[in-house]
Amino acid sequence: MGEFLSTVIKKAKEVAAGSGICVVQNFEPFPLYSIMADLGFEHSTEKTSDTEYRAYFYRAETREADASTNVPLHPAALLNLGKIDKTLGKITSQFWQLVWNREEPAIDQKTKYLLSLANAVGSGRIRQATRELVKAYFEGVTVSELDELFSLFVWNQGVGNFASEIGPSTLFAAYQLIKRLENEGKSRGEVLAELVSKYGEKNPDVSVLEKKQ
Question: Which domain of life does the protein's organism represent (predicted)?
Fold first, then answer.
């Protein structure tokens, strides 16, 4: 989704309040909705054919996305799957909606992020684990909860693996940043802002956006 996403966001930021844009995709772009909402857009979507959706975004207000009030690190890479196969992109987007945007979920969002974080660590996907940590912190995870979680990583993954793989990682660095800033008396909003600044899409070890060649 790299070039597509950056093009849409660049265009969206130029749209004045009271105006809008239309985004055409081969499946309903669920992940794009939250990104645009962060910028002050409302949306409506119509399915014009089996292979085309038109998402209309109306800018109700002009605002910049703020990591302290909006969920950071959107699932921007999902639309890359549409470049492989249109049907695969559509199915994956709908699956994301089912898992992450379910109405009245039985598992709260913070716990889902922590479960996803742990699963990512278990399978060696530190990039994803770091992203889930940032989102879990946004949802209110505490340092004490993170301390216990990282202790579980030592127990389940082993001391050697923790020392060689997790300790030097962006995941552990982000966790330590949270602890340090909170010990310094920073507010959750201030911590989150620095967390996103250092471990957001601008960090090549965290970003999932398509890299330009």
Answer: Archaea
Give dist(CA 31, CA 177) in Å, integer: 28
Task: Copy the structure tokens of residue 135.
Answer: 């989102």
Tokens encoding 93: 């987007």
- How would you class 102 by CB atoms within 10 Å of its CB: exposed for 0-12, middle for 13-18, buried for 19 or more? exposed
Q: Is 198 exposed, middle or buried (0-12, 13-18, 19+ CB in 10 A)?
A: middle
pLDDT tens digits along 87-127:
888 888 888 888 888 888 899 999 999 999 999 999 999 99
**Which tokens in the block code for residue 91?**
């199915």
Spacing of C-alpha 17 from chain mean position: 26
Cα distance between residue 194 and residue 151, in whole Å:
24
Instruction: Return the sign of the alpha-carbon dihedral for residues 195, 126, 109, 177.
Output: negative
Q: What is the tens place of the pLDDT at every residue in 137-165?
A: 999 999 999 999 999 999 999 999 999 99
